[in-house]
Amino acid sequence: MKHAILQWLPALMLLLAATAAYGQRITDASYRTVAYIKSDGTIQDASYRTVGYIKSNGSIQDGSYRTIGYLKSDGTIQDSSYRTVGHIKDDGTVQDSSYRTIGHVKKDGTVQDASYRTIGHARDIPLRWAAFFFFFSAN
Question: Which DSSP category does 116 fall into?
Answer without folding.
Answer: -
